[in-house]
Design goal:
This protein has 25 helices and 2 strands. By secondary structure, it is mainly alpha-helical. It has a two-stranded antiparallel sheet. The radius of gyration is 41 Å and the shape is flat. It starts with 16 loop residues before the first helix and ends with a helix.
Length: 644
Amino acid sequence: MGPQGKKAPDGKTGTGAGAKQRKRKTSDAGSEAGSAISFEISQSEGNTFRSMGMYKKAIDSYTRALSVKPKHKAVLMSRSQCYQQIGDNALALEDANRIVAEDQTSAQGLLQKADVYYQMGQFEYALVLYHRGHKFRPEIQGFRLGIQKSKEAIENSIGEDVGIRLEKKGDLSFFIEEQKTPSKRKDALQRKQQQPNRQQTTHNGKTQQTKRKTRTPKDRDKKTVRQLLGQLYEDVTYLEALLHESEKTSKTRTTEQVTDLATECLDYLDSRTEFWQQQQPTFSRQQERNNRSARLYLETMKRKKEKKKRTDPTKWIIAKADETEEALNNKDYAECMDTADRVLKELEKYSEAEVPRKKEFLGNFHSFMGIACLETGSYEEAARHHRIDYNVAKELESEQQVVRAMDNLGSTYAKMGRHREASKIFKDRLLLTSSAIEEAWLYHDLGRCHLEMGNNYDALECGEKSMNAAEKAKDEIWKLNATIVVSEAQLNLGDTDKALKSFEEALALSRALRSSTAEQAIVKVIRTIRDKDESNGLDSEDEKQSTEHSLNDDKEQHNEDKQLTTIYDEEYNDNEDKKLTTTRDKEDNDNEDKQLTTIYDEEYNDNEDKKLTTTRDKEDNDNEDKQLTTIHTTKNIMTMKIRS
């Protein structure tokens, strides 16, 4: 629940109409200053992500900046170039058009628009724009290079003008015979064109004439078409054969539909062939295809060698972990995810007896996958992998892995906008801190989450704790970050004077660290706040005192709410502990009962075994006695017979 101010009559506590007006004015100043900060920070983040090659993140940052200043040309240009890098040419062209619409004399906007047209394969439009820009600003090299590459692309598609002119010389009888006896395909098309138009019934019961779809075959070298289309060339052959067969059969509604569909597909494939031939010459495509085949062959051979060498799975997994970490450090996120995914699939095939450190390896590779997914913008997948890493770490009771998983999971939730979950992770993580620098960045990130959720008092408290930890660790960078959090919280609370002092402290720190980007952003915010104060005439001591009283009342209410929340949390935790204790006692009793039952069963089985043994011994003794008696009797009988 958010903080609320206490009500009091005017003139007693200083929270009357004057204080409300003061608070409303300071909140307006704070909102505008906050917007300026948001724009500068978002633009700086976008520039940083763009320089690192993280174009999707840069686009998100530029979009946030444009939500504050929708017509900012530099941000529009940067976002258009990022869209161009990820292949979204339609959105790149849209931003370039917005720049040119706002300022038709913008040379950079015109150059960007021409570059997008070139990347879309519309080389003629690009050439026109390059020429227009070169005429307007001939000193810009990009226009000259654009004219050259556009001309080369057009020549690749239509060929160069070599000055050859056809003349009516020699034997032309071949062409005359060709005209008299056209090919089967052309003859079929001519017959189709001579057929009467079909009738279609519309939804209102009337009939209307519709023209049959016809296709004019284009004279191209079959070898060139085969190289451009690749596997699609088989579809062209099949469709042409189908079109030829449908022309021979009787004309029915079904055959006409088949003919129309086949013609439409062939026209589409013709247009694709023409586009690919314009975009890249045939010899370049063949070379690229050969290179791709060679790469695939080398990768296949490498995997086969790896399978042969994989005698000890643990050594192989450790080697793959080193490769994955190296790819992650080199920002080759695709290779990192590919290797980690293969290792995770292989780990499923082994038992813990074969790989004793299986769970540890699972956590490590899920952590690699989560970091790579986070860097490429796949936030949901990143959160899933980090949750698996966290659960595995808790099973292993490894504090080091738990700390790593919590850090990654909290950062992922924060970037996803799930600030409540992120703040909970950061609070739990603070219980495992081992140094002042950890406390500094954890309290800073927790304060950022509170700012996003609108908990300004909590954000202020976390910012101050982050500042204290940074001073203890003697880290000026985190001290600067914490000071900015404190400044924003004070500004949102309407305490303009304290916010100005905090921003001035941040400005001094940024100058000491020689951070020009932070310095420029802070200077703009300070100017905005001062200009707003001067325009509103906020110099009255009475108004300042009333505002301070209002802020103090809000703070007291916030502290009371916080104490109540703490009491409720403690009671809830006590109840949860009691439930856990009860559950554990039940489990212990069940285990003891099982142990006693097992002991009784073992004793019973021992007694039964003893009884069986005794019985068998008695039977054996009886049998032996009988055998001895029989032997003695037999001896006596034999003795009597001998005597007689």
